[in-house]
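Subject: sequence -> structure tokens, single chain

Hey, anyone have a minute? Need the predicted structure for the following. Not urgent.
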Amino acid sequence: MSETNTSDIQCFVAGAAVEHLPQIEYSISEISARLGIRIEVSCDRSKGPFHLVYGEEVTDARTVCLPYNPRCYDGTGLFKALGDPLLWAHESVDKPEATDIIGGVFRLLAFSDELQVCPKDRDRRGIFSTTSLPKQRFAVRAEPIVENHTKVILRSLHQLNPNQSTIDKWPGGKKWALLLTHDTDAVSISAKPELAFNFVKGITRHPLRFKMVLDGFRHMLKPLEKNPLYGFSKWKEAENAKDIQSAFYLYFRHGLSLDLSDWRSSVGDADFKWEELRSMAKDGWEFGLHPPIHAKTSINEFIKGKEFLEDKLEQPIFGLRHHYWALDWRKPHLTYRKHVNSGFRYDLSIAWRDSVGFRAGTCLPFRPWDPAREKGLDIYSIPTAIMDGHIIPMRDGDDFDIEECSKAAEDVIRSVSENGGVLTLDWHTESACNSYFYKGHIQVLDKILHKILAHDDVWVTTPWELTKHWHQRRNELS
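Reply:
Had a minute. Here:
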């Protein structure tokens, strides 16, 4: 890791702000990780002088005063985007410089604005469409506002010390990071549940499903690796050609009731052959768990899923991403506790259901907040910014504008690169067939990757490698 020795920054929390000290310490730890600057928090005035003061006005030119607004820590208030860059401020604030920078970071990372989503707008899993968000939050759903807040802090510190040094964010002089990932929702078009599902869907909604039924029967006696929905070989070949490697998230269900939106074929099927996946794991591809929809209700589901995959892959796994993003949307910390206690080190499930962007307002890893324990949990949440279904329409085999779909990702990609963030792409494993409802998906991804890989400042890695790097970096700042 390339690094520069940093000067510690002292932050004094004063007055009424002390009431929210755990939240403030959490927020500042996340700001510190983004800046690459160690920030020490104190409520003891005698330990001054301080570079930052939060919660009271001071006239010392050597100190930066940060406004405090208790409404940031109350989920009932309405907030808005304000200034350039956009900051997250209470609706009563009319000047960007009056924005509570620290409280705004906490509010976004704790998903506080989601408390205002109407219960009737949530589905049976608690998940909601972005149009159900408060109007102002919806408008900036694709803006990494947390990073904008950290820019304000850095600008203030540079006013105090133009030579303020930082630890590099990414290794080898890279300026941002790319994670290519795949959720594996199907592996065999010939599986009986797939045949039944496609037949029913063909009758009720999509005639293309009948072709999938016919192809399912045609491939029933063929080797699994020849099956249209078995995408691992195709991804390996395509990624080798680009000199990159990705991560795959594999389904395994143990004992829980099946949800209608769960998978119908998976690596958990008795006839699945593991040799190719073992070989890929040894060669540097990463594998993790893709838990079923009801997994959030049972820690045993995570434990058994992890054990199953590790046994089959003959390698440890460290990460996961929930199918349908279905961790507990009302109380994410309850699911994250299960992740931690099951031995997982990172999760990729924080994303919008129906839109590109940043559900937590950040394009960088963060520790999920636990409101009951009043601290960040010992796991990293790596935001997923773009899924194939976010930008590609669900069509019945019809053509769509590939160029237009790839352009739909450009603003988010630009935001991530400009903020030195992590761009996580999620292209389903089965989309490698580039047929049926996945027709054109590979061309869209190729256009996106072509533009990204043309830059030599992006670190293309896997989620576990990125997690290890980020964790080491945070430890150096603690």
